[in-house]
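Name: ParB family chromosome partitioning protein
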Amino acid sequence: MAALQRKTGLGKGLGALLQDDLKVSPNTTSRDIGDTSAPSAGSINFIKIEQIAVNPFQPRTDFDEGALRELSESIRLQGLIQPITVRQVSKNQYQLISGERRLRASILAGITEIPAYVRTANDQQMLEMALIENIQRENLNAIEVALSFQRMIEECNLKQEELGDRVSKNRSTVTNYLRLLKLPPVIQVGIRDGKITMGHARALINVGDIDKQLFVYQEIIDKDLSVRMAEILVRNIQEQLKPKKGKGVGKQLDFQYQKIEDDLASKFSTRVRLNLKNSRGKGAIEIPFESEDDLSRILELLDW
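Structure predicted for ParB family chromosome partitioning protein:
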């Protein structure tokens, strides 16, 4: 088999990078594919895994162990098809740019050498390539994407518009991700762990008060609220926080009535209002609804 040292182009398919019958198995070595003692930038080479250090700029922090085992078994049986990407930092020493999941799975499969595309890159280019490669794969959770965006802005000295151009996203999308990092840590963990979606998080961002954010977050989890229902709850909370007009409305509800409002809001997943008419406790309970479906849901909770 011919040595794997020819130049390759980024825009070409896998067939232009590897011979069709080339696969890496635990028994594959550099002797099977030709001399790889002097890998050159821009080429595909088989490199010993022990010579490859992980990417210190890797934005991804969570790797699904089950998925890694599945990929490892596939590599063990079928071989590794897609090369990883590395840069050479010294003689026989390399640093991973992208493909950490493939590298980890190959190690689990018992492979000692792995096909790698060798590129020339400085630290900033390493960071940028790693971040963009991960973001474009769309397999990061929203918090990891947000942290990646923040790192690109801070460490690559990019403005939001420039960042959007690099990752093919408009500025509003970039801004929405960055705003997630202003949410309380417990909510960020919930986003990372998949307890709530990006849609839920965007609704929570619009709640200025941290205590209210945590209240809505817990409601979403406890009652399995859809994004639409979460948006309704947030909107009602915002209405409740607006200054009220009219007779006797200027004064704050005391603690007892505020507790009743919060408990009712929790029950109906919407902000309930207690409208007090006078000092003798006369008033009304107002339960707003956004649609016929929302009304039906509330009536069902009332056993109507």
